[in-house]
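Problem 12. The chain below contains 416 residues. Write out its predicted structure in token notation.
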Amino acid sequence: MSTNQTDPLATPLLPDPLAFLDDEVAALRERHLYRALRVMSSGQGPIVSVDERRLISLSSNDYLGLTHHPRLREAALTAVRDFGVGSGAVRTIAGTMSMHEALEAELAEFKGTPAVLTFQSGFTANTGVIPTITGETDLIVSDSLNHASIIDGMRLSKAPRKIYPHADVEALRAVLDEAVRDGRPGSGEPYRLILVVTDGVFSMDGDIAPLPGIVEAAEAAGAAVFVDDAHASGVLGRDGRGTVDHFGLHRRVAIQVGTLSKAVGVQGGYVAGSVALREILTQRSRPFLFSTSHPPAVVAACREAIRVMVDEPELHARLWDNTRFFKAELARLGFDTGRSETPITPVMMGNPETAMRFSDRLMDEGVFAQPVVFPTVALDLARIRTIVTAAHAREQLDRALQAFSTVGRELGVIRG
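Solution.
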């Protein structure tokens, strides 16, 4: 029987329109900017299995060690047994469960705000909020080192934006004074909203935003303040309530964004603010409207994590004890840790090739600490980014510091 089908192997090959990607990958390798994905075959924790090696991990955002906390595990297992593995739909169709509402009410109480809305991640929270509440008649004023999710959120907005030098309150004040004085370009009309956006803790350098000065400058200009507290949630403030609580600035910060996938130990993001903010996001925020809601196990584990943070303050204390010890010892060894004030401690390398080699050699010495290079940081600011957690034993940190000392001297990063 004859057919009109042709042999696909006999079809002439056409030029690959994506062939340029091979060249781009090759260029990244040549410039020592290509980062291979490390494969982990264990759960998160102070000791992990990476590429079939058992290593001390300094690369996890699990600040409080909650990913394996027995109360969270039991909450997740119970939720799966009772409610299944998925929520089935987006929140506006059939994907809102009573547990979603309960989590948001508990988060609002924890944060000291009237309302909270959860998102699938901290990234989608920022890209969901910023373009929803800002438009052509508004102005966004952003710190130069804000997180990529803030940058992408601004790109999705039709609002113009101005960038001020990192953590420079006087420069921010000048930008705001000019915006109030001159108004919108072309018309001189006042902006409907001036939104000042800053990270609470900056994820690459580990420094804390000068939030009191930012709030004062914003209030003088009639602007609203937006704080991304991803790396402050569970780390700063009472029981980890965040930067706003750390500085006692409740009711003076309009919007707080945070994550449930770092110190909280699970997955997701949240936006804390007014009831009206929550309501408008449920109606217009695209990530909320077009993404399936969190599965029951995630919601239940997040709810339990909030209770654990309140019930077990020793986790928070241990995190900061380990942080202070590790920072002091790195400094004593002669490493440059930049301006870090938090458990995020960069070990500055400068050169991307040095950072890559340093990380590889640390693995040989039994330590998993990842390099951070361009475009995450500037070309000449490559570093090893380390995070200690409440789960690290002092003996593990001692071994990690010995590895840093050995490799640092070998590669000439420190001397003596």
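Discussion. The chain has two domains: 36-63+313-410, 70-310. Students who got a different answer should revisit the alignment rule from Section 12.3.
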